[in-house]
What does this fold into?
Amino acid sequence: MPAEDDKHWLEQPVIALKGIGEKLQERFARRKLFTLNDLLFHLPVRYLDKTRIQPIAGVRIDDSALVRGELLSCKTHYARRPVMTCQISDGSAMLTLRFFHFNKSQTQALARALEEGKWLSCFGEVKRGRQGLEMTHPEYRIIAEDQIIQMQEHLTPVYPTTEGLSQTVLRNAIAQVIQQLKQQQKNNSQREIITDFLSEAIRRELALPLLSQCLLYLHEPPPECSVFELTEGDDPWRQRLVLEELLAHQLSMKQIYQQQTQHKASAFRINSDHLFNHKLSQIGQNSPGSIQNSLSAQFLQQLPFKLTQAQQRVIQDIAEDMCQPYPMQRLVQGDVGSGKTVVAALSALFAIENRCQVALMAPTELLAGQHYDNFRQWFTELDINISFLSGKSTARERREALEVIDDGTAQMVIGTHALFQDEVNFNNLGLVIIDEQHRFGVHQRLSLLAKGKKEIQQSIYPHQLIMTATPIPRTLAMTAYADLDCSVIDELPPGRTPVDTVVIGQQRRDEVLARVHHACLNGRQAYWVCTLIEESEVLQCQAAEQSYKLLREQLPDLAIGLVHGRMKAAEKQAVITEFKEGQLALLVATTVIEVGVDVPNASLMIIENAERLGLSQLHQLRGRVGRGSQASACVLLYGQPLSKNGKARLMTLRETSDGFEVARKDLELRGPGEILGTRQTGLAEMKIADVIRDQHLIPKVNDIALHLLRDYPEAVTPIINRWIGHSVEYQNV
Ligand code: ADP
Ligand code: MG
It folds into this structure.
């Protein structure tokens, strides 16, 4: 056990340090650095190596290095701004130094100081320039040829800072804490003085080094360790901290999960076993009464296809969850086209059979509209009352919807964010389904949950089902979705033919046009998708309108339609319906069709300026074709210049149609912050862990998290506080 006063010194406010007054304290606070402990766990993002002089020929491009050399030449150019370039050599290689942003007199002073034949030591980042190696604005000192340079004793840490908090101030403050740590160690004869919240068993099993050792090592790495190893490699000191940080995140998410399971929900009675264990034809004929009347059995019977094994498995998971007296929190991941809608429909029926209302929320008007059409078709035969509510509903539609939601006549409500609004009062909400979750933030999700609670007195929460078409690798899901149970639909319905994807330059648009023409004349249907970099919907729609006009001129004998985000919901829906019914051969669209549009006969998709879109988005779009049994194709038209990253995206799509593989590549190209978006910003803001680089630790972390929650619950909050501290807003839900 650490002595009480050890705790005491780490919990002192930063103002206790030398050189830190109230003003600085405030700036530290902005970076969420309140105590010495916070400083101790504020870890470097990278390091500078000023512990040794490197031969110029030996430096790595893009690394910072300390070098020395003789000035061979200095030239000043007076262009728009004065620029000075010098060349130095240490005998191994030459290095160009570049200085600018000076006014004339400063440049002249520099020129007087830097005379040929003098010796310099320089520290800076080495780049490859036109004339070989270069440093721009290095830190430099003039030295004597044989001067021994005072070197740093350890690698210099570079900390994350914020405005008003300089690297020097931060380094200085943290150095003081490290000094105190060393002192404490000495006074306490080397015994561990930082509380380790991990259990003895875990520490022994994983042979973890002492926490204080790890912290000292990372703040003041010894000169012999390489910067690369420290930031990319897997030395045990860093790994130990990475492990604990990942653990802190995992624990905080699992805490949210546990808190949810403390809530009450209606425990449904569901006969899902009978659904799949009997031949469907027998249900409704020979099986006992309750099944005979079961809506879900009827629904399955009227479906024109059999569910895939994967769909059945996921439905079983869901059914099991909804039989519990606490709310389901399940995420269903399934590639585009894997048949998530049917899974949603069956789940809805389970709730409706149990006399509860269902809310299904979609991220766009268009998708909500599609679902509404779909579910109406499916459910009307079952005598189920469905209502629709979106931001674009008219005042009257709205009033009517609110009424039937409130009095419980509407058994199911489909809509957009509008379902969140305060005036919406559910009568008996038992299940919330959120489709294509990557477009909703965690807060919206939670507020809909809270809504269920508000509506139903006695604090009964609705069950919750989230569906996403952006699958992520399993280990990442363990971290990012640690507050949810996950199911994966890892199988596509049978009979799908893979989409043949080709990548073609914009200059060959005419050929593509001919191909579209030919295909449409032969009874096929095609999408022509227009893209734009700007988020502006107005510009996107203008671009689509222009393409539409052009295509109508170029292909006058085809029936062409247009759909974009600024059309009225009903107009959009009407066009999609015409396309669905085959009255239109070609549909020109913006990326509004990215999710949910389901027209199996469409088998060709052209995406103009495909290089402008992200991988996941392209994969989603492409998922609109390849839904029928005929061979489908997707043409990715790109404009020049094509960036390296843009090319990598297009090539990935050409090579794979597997959503998980696409997601993996997307993560590699864009990083987790972009992909997981607002939902889990915490993941992208970790101090030392990197969910991609450190994925291999995640299964272990998961085990430890479960172990702690079960056997050492008292360790959970301290670990979360140490790493995430006061910044976890999502903890309090
Ligand atoms: P997504 O997972 O992208 O939401 P959808 O639910 O829209 O996919 O399903 C895509 C298409 O596949 C729809 O036309 C749907 O009717 C069809 N489908 C779903 N499940 C099956 C199945 N088991 N067998 C055949 N077709 C199916
Ligand atoms: Mg879908």
The chain has four domains: 3-46+158-232, 53-150, 265-489, 499-656. Residues 340-341, 435, 596 surround magnesium ion (ligand 2) (CB under 6 Å). Residues 236-261 form the longest helix (26 residues). The chain is about 40% helix and 15% strand.
